[in-house]
Amino acid sequence: MHKVTETTHSMDKIVSLCKRRGFIFQSSEIYGGLASAWDYGPLGVELKQNVKAAWWRSMVHNRDDMVGLDSGILMHPQIWKASGHTENFHDVLVDCKKCKNRFREDHIENNKCPNCGASDFTDGRAFNLMFKTHFGAVADEASEAYLRPETAQGIFVNFQNVIDATSRKLPFGIAQIGKAFRNEVTTGNFTFRMREFEQMEIEYFIKPDDADECHKQWIDQRLQWYLDLGIKKENLKIREHGKEELAHYAKGCSDIEYNFPFGWSELEGIANRADYDLKQHSQFSGKDLKYQDKVTNERYFPYVIEPSGGVDRATLAFLIDAYHEEEVEGKTRVILKFSKQLAPIKVAVLPLLKSNNDIVTLSKKIKQDLQQSFTCMYNDTAAIGKLYRRQDEVGTFFCVTVDVQSLEDKQVTVRDRDTMAQERIPLDNLKKYLIDKLSN
Amino acid sequence: MHKVTETTHSMDKIVSLCKRRGFIFQSSEIYGGLASAWDYGPLGVELKQNVKAAWWRSMVHNRDDMVGLDSGILMHPQIWKASGHTENFHDVLVDCKKCKNRFREDHIENNKCPNCGASDFTDGRAFNLMFKTHFGAVADEASEAYLRPETAQGIFVNFQNVIDATSRKLPFGIAQIGKAFRNEVTTGNFTFRMREFEQMEIEYFIKPDDADECHKQWIDQRLQWYLDLGIKKENLKIREHGKEELAHYAKGCSDIEYNFPFGWSELEGIANRADYDLKQHSQFSGKDLKYQDKVTNERYFPYVIEPSGGVDRATLAFLIDAYHEEEVEGKTRVILKFSKQLAPIKVAVLPLLKSNNDIVTLSKKIKQDLQQSFTCMYNDTAAIGKLYRRQDEVGTFFCVTVDVQSLEDKQVTVRDRDTMAQERIPLDNLKKYLIDKLSN
User: Fold this and answer.
1) CB neighbour list of residue B84: distance below 8 Å, 6 or more residues apart
2) Is B213's pLDDT higher than 70?
3) CA distance B67 to A420
4) How many CB atoms within 10 Å of residue B89?
5) Is B295 part of the contact surface with chain A (CB cutoff 8 Å)?
6) Which residue on chain A is closest to B71 by alpha carbon?
7) pLDDT digits (tens, 9 = 90+) for A371-385
8) Whole-angstrom Cα distance, residue B337 to residue B259?
9) Pick from B40, B73, B176: which is nearest to A179 by CB?
10) How distant, in Å, are the alpha carbons of B79, B204, B239, B255 from that of B269?
11) Are B189 and B197 in contact (CB under 8 A)?
12) What are residue B46's phi and psi, to 5 degrees?
C-alpha cells in the first residue's frame, strides 16, 4: 500500500521537528538563548510526563518492593562532603594564554589550543561541577549551598526515615524523579547533555551477599523497560564499565546505551555502589544508618544497586526511535510512532468542514467526551489531508473525523496512525472502541 | 454508630503524623536539618503527584483552551531584568549592632531588636530574594544566573514559540508546574513557606477588553477546583487585594485563602497582570511579542490573567482539611478523609493471618491484580484492627481483607474508610466493584 523508506535521519531533522511542533524550544530564545538549556513545549511536556509516569508506574506502583520519595534540590552542604562531591566532582581546566579560552585539560590534544592553535596554557585548575549558591539571609544561617548534582543522595539521607515510616524490610528500593544540575564544561547534542536535567533514580537496598545477582536482574529489568515502551532492540545495548572507569567504591557498573544519531551514548547507568553511601553518611552525620534485621537481629550496612536514568535522555531516545519517514503517493510522510503509553495525544478530533456549525459543534462535543479518558485535541486549522499529516508528525494514535454524513448516520471515521486504515464507527461505540484499542 | 468529635487539631499533630507515616520529613534531618526545607516521603510524594495530576487534568487536558509547558529553572539573566525582579524583588534588612542578628526592617517594632532588645541598627540594605549562582565554566560564557523565583516568566518568554507551534488564537492559556526558589528571610509554618517550593501557574492571554470578566471567571473556577477536591467550603475564602498591595502594573488581584491552624493564609493568587510582561520582554529582547489577530489583522499586546497556586500549600491544605478524629469504642480514630482523586493509596490488601501461606499468597495475588488499576499496598505487619487504623490514618479508601473463609468461598471483606462498613465481595467481582466505587 505504501512504501516504507527507512532513511537515516539526522539530529537536525529531530531538532527542527521539535521546535516546529512544540516539543522542545531553545531556552530564553528571544534573549539569544542560554547555552545547552532547553524548554519543553506543549507536546514535549506531555511526552516527558508520560515517560515519567510510565517509569513510576512500573518501578513503584506495579511492584511490591518499592516506595517513592521527593527530596529537595537544596540540601545541607555537609551531604556533598560525605558523598565525595565537594572534593572530587570536578573537571581540570586550563586557559590558553594566547586566546584566553578555557578548556578541559583532557580535551587538549598534542598540547595545541583547539581554538587558536597556540600551545601555552595555564596550569590545570580543578573546577567543581556543582552549582553553588547561598542559602539564608540572616547572618548566622547564611551558608554555601549547592544545587544537587544527583538525586541519589536525597534518598540515602532519608533511608532511616523511610524505614521508620514504612517498616520496610530488605530487599526494598526507594525511587525518585527530580531535577539535578551539573555545570558541565562540555555540553551539547541537544537535550542529551544539559546543565539542568532530570533524573529518575532508584536505590535498591539488599543484603551484601545478594548484590551480584540483584545487579544482573536490575540490568535486565531496566533494559526491558525501554523495550516495552517501544525502543527498537537493535538500538539498545549494554556496556559494562572497565575497571578504570569505576568509582573507587563501586563494585561494578553497566550502562544501557542508545544508538543516537551522534553515536552510542548512555541512557542509564546501573551500578553496584556497595555500602559506600550509607557508611559515609553514618560517619559524617554521626547517626548509625545500619539496617537492623528484626528476625536475626543482625545489624549491617546494606549494599545498594542504583539504576540511574536520565528523563531528558530517555525522552530524546523515544523521540528519535519513534521518528519514521514513509513515501506515500510520491510524498514523504513523517510519523512519530510512539507507543500507546507515550504518545502525547491519543486522539485528535477533526471536523471535515469547519464552515459547517453542526459538524464543528458535534466534533467539540466528541472531544469533550473523549478527553475524560485520554488526552485529546480538537483541530480545524487546515484541510483534512494536512491535518492527518500534522497528527502523524506528532504521533497521535487515532484521528476521528466528523463529516456531513456523521450528522445523519451518527458515525465517524477513525483513522489509524500507523496503517492509515480508516474505519467507520458508530458514535455510541466510539469511546469503548478507542479505550479497547488504546489499552491493550 | 460512632460519635464524631470535631476537635480542633493543631499543626503539631499534622507535622507529627506526616513524619511518622512518611508524608513529609525534615530535609537533611541526620545533619541537623536545613531551615524551612522539607522532603516528601513515600506517601507525601504520591499525594503531591495526585494534586499536580488533578490540576493538570482539569486545567489542561479537560479544557479546549489550554496547553502545557515545562521551562527551565535556570534561564537567561536578562529575563529577570525585564520582569523587574533584579531591581525590585527584595526585602530591606538591618543588622542589630549589638547582637549582630539580621532582621527585616519592617519587622522591627518600636526600634528594639527582637533578639536582644538593643535599639542600634545598621542602615537598611536591600537584599534580593533570588538565589544567585554562576552558569558555565568557560570564561566568555560564565555569567551570573538566578534560580527562578516564579515559573511565570518561562511562560512569557515562550509565548511566541507556543503560538508558532500550536496556531493558538486568543483566548488561550499556558500552564506550567515546577520548582521556584525564594531566599525568604521569614520562613516557617511547616511546608507553607519554604525557600524551595513548587508552583502551578497559568498565564491566560485575552483581549484587553475581556480582562475584567475573565478575571472574575478564573477566580470562580480556581475556587471551585479546591472545593471539587474536597476542601470544606467554610475553610476557603476570597480576599481581594487593596490598591496599596498591588504591583504597580497589576489591575487587580484576589487571593484564595485557606483557614490554616496558624490563620487564614494564601493558597493561590489570581491576578490581572494587564500587558506588563509581554511589553517588558518585547522591550528588553527587541522582539515584538504582540499578538496578531489573523481575522481583523489587529496587532496588540494581550492582557494576562494569572492564577498562580502553590503545590506545597495546596498539598498541606488538603492534608489539614482531610484530618479528622472520631471516638470509636472509647478510642480516638484518626482519619485522613482525602477525596478519591487525592488519596495516596486507594486500596490496601490485608491478610487476616500472616502465618497462613495460602492467605498470604492469595492476598499478594489480589494486590498484583488490583494495582493495574489503582495504587495499592499489601501490609501484614500487625493484627487486623491495627492495620485498619493505620490505613485510616493515611486515608486509604478501601481495605480488602483476606481470611480463611476467602480460601473456600472466594470472597473477601471490603471495608469503607469513612463508614467502616464491611461488605463481603466475590473475588470475581472485586476489581469492578472497586473501580465503580472509586470512579464516581
Assistant:
1) B280
2) yes
3) 27
4) 17
5) no
6) A39
7) 989 999 999 989 999
8) 17
9) B73
10) 22, 14, 9, 4
11) no
12) -70, -45
The nearest alpha carbon in chain B to A173 belongs to B42
Residue A2: what pLDDT?
A: 42
Number of Cβ pairs closer than 8 Å across A and B? 254
| Structure ipTM | 0.95
Cα–Cα distance for residue pair A169/A205, rounded to 1 Å: 9
CB contact under 8 A, B69 and A41: yes
Cβ within 8 Å of residue B40, ≥6 positions away: A69, A70, A71, B23, B24, B25, B47, B48
Where helices occur in B233-285 by DSSP H, the ranges are 276-285
Q: Which three cell numbers stand for residue B335?
A: 482519619
Contact, B374 vs B321, CB < 8 A?
A: no
pTM: 0.95
Contact criterion met (CB < 8 Å) for A78 and B19? no
CB proximity under 8 Å: B 8-27 to A: 19-22, 25, 27
Residue A135: the pLDDT is 85
d(CA B194, CA B382): 36
Q: How far apart are CA B219 and CA B305, in angstroms?
A: 10
Chain B residues with beta carbon closer than 8 angstroms to that of A35: 135-136, 141
Residues in chain A closer than 8 A to B195 (CB atoms): 74, 135-136
> What is the predicted pLDDT for the residue at A440?
61
Residue B142 has pLDDT above 70, yes or no: no
A237 interfaces chain B, CB cutoff of 8 Å? no
Question: With contacts defined as CB-CB under 8 Å, which chain B residues touch A61?
Answer: 371, 375-376
* Residue contact A141–B35, C-beta within 8 A: yes
Indicate the pairing of strand B132-135 with strand B125-128.
unpaired
Our CA-based measurement puts residue B103 at a distance from the nearest CA of chain A, in whole angstroms, of: 7
Q: What is the rounded radius of gyration, in angstroms, for the C-alpha atoms of chain B?
A: 26
SS3 B373: coil
By the 8 A CB rule, do B133 and A132 touch?
yes
Cα–Cα distance measured from residue B136 to residue B115, given in angstroms and rounded to the nearest whole number: 41
- Residue B346, all three cell numbers: 486507594
User: Tens of pLDDT along A33-58?
Assistant: 998 899 999 999 999 999 999 999 99
pLDDT, average across residues B403-421: 97
Residues B49-98: tens digit of each pLDDT: 999 999 999 999 999 999 999 999 999 999 999 999 999 998 888 888 99
A78, closest residue in chain B (CA to CA): B31
Q: Check CB contact under 8 Å for B76 and A32.
A: yes
Supply A279's cell numbers. 557508611
Reported confidence tier of residue B184, pLDDT bands at 50, 70, 90: confident
Q: Average pLDDT in the B306-329 region?
A: 96
Of B73, B139, B162, the CB nearest to A41: B162
How many Cβ atoms sit within 10 Å of the Cβ of residue B440?
Answer: 6
d(CA B411, CA A30): 63
Does A74 contact B34 at a Cβ distance shorter than 8 Å? yes
Task: Answer yes or no: do A127 and B133 touch at CB < 8 A.
Answer: no
- Which residues on chain A are in Cβ contact (under 8 Å) with B154? 39
Residue A99 touches partner B, C-beta closer than 8 Å: no
Q: Between chains, do A137 and B185 touch, taking CB under 8 Å as contact?
A: yes
Query: B59 to chain A: which residues are within 8 Å by CB?
Result: none
Enter the C-alpha cell of residue B323. Answer: 484530618
The DSSP code sequence of A292-311 is E-TTT--EEPPEEEEEEEEH
Is B44 part of the contact surface with chain A (CB cutoff 8 Å)?
Answer: yes
What Rg value do the Cα atoms of chain A yield, rounded?
A: 26
A25: nearest Cα among B147, B165, B278, B289: B165
Closest residue of chain B to A56, computed from CA coordinates: B46
The answer to whether residue B4 scores a pLDDT higher than 50 is: no
In chain A, which stretches have pLDDT less than 70? 1-9, 138-142, 440
Please confirm whether the linkage preceding A171 is cis (ω < 30° from 0). yes
